[in-house]
Amino acid sequence: MIDFDDLFRSCARDLRLFLQRRVASAELAADLAQEAFFRLMRSERAPDGGRSATLDARAYLFSIAAHLAIDHRRQGRRQQTGQADESVLTGFPDPRPSAERTVLSREELKVLAQAVASLPPRGRQIFLMHKVEELSYADIAERLGIAKNTVMVHMARSLAHCRHTLDRHRTEND
């Protein structure tokens, strides 16, 4: 089990400096560092036990922090883009799909729904639990009383079936 207090004491300063080089202010770096620790503590991927686990936790923590900094920069760019003058945007083509593309997408959605409906019952159940209910493989395994690897096998088969069905549909309609 990782001692988060020790981990915090040993690398909080380094983490804030790491983030400060990537974001605009020390305050924001401190906020992102706190968020990174929070995400590590609630993560299922946090390593357990021993010195190597502490080093793995530190590496994972810095990875989380790097991703938070990237997300923050992206969010800032999106906000800047949203403030652009309307006249600048008039030269761009309409981002909405064409009527033809919309019809094709709806048709593909129907094909996908049929593919899901044609899955074996357990495969369909697992597919819907993961894709619709957004449950993790571990949660699905626990609810169904099966191994996580079994869930993964069912998902792989279900996804392959759906992909094959869509590919076949696209080939027939090209």
Please provide a written account of the structure.
This protein has 174 residues and is mostly helical. The protein folds into 2 domains: 4-82, no CATH class; 99-172, Arc Repressor Mutant, subunit A, CATH 1.10.10. It is built from 8 helices and no strands. The chain has helices at 4-20, 26-42, 50-82, 86-89, 99-117, 121-131, 137-144, 148-172. Helix 1 (4-20) runs antiparallel to helix 2 (26-42). The protein is flat, with a radius of gyration of 23 Å. The termini are far apart. The mean pLDDT is 84.
Question: What is the topology?
Answer:
Blueprint: H1 4-20, H2 26-42, H3 50-82, H4 86-89, H5 99-117, H6 121-131, H7 137-144, H8 148-172
Helix pairs in contact: 1-2, 1-3, 2-3, 5-8, 6-8, 7-8
Pattern of helices and strands: HHHHHHHH
Helix fraction bin? over 70%
The largest pleated sheet is described as: none
Instruction: Provide the structure class.
Output: mainly alpha
Distance between the termini: 56 Å
What is the number of beta strands? Answer: 0
Characteristic terms for this protein:
flat; mainly alpha; 8 helices; 174 residues
Quick rundown:
By secondary structure, the protein is an all-alpha fold. It has helices spanning 4-20, 26-42, 50-82, 86-89, 99-117, 121-131, 137-144, 148-172.
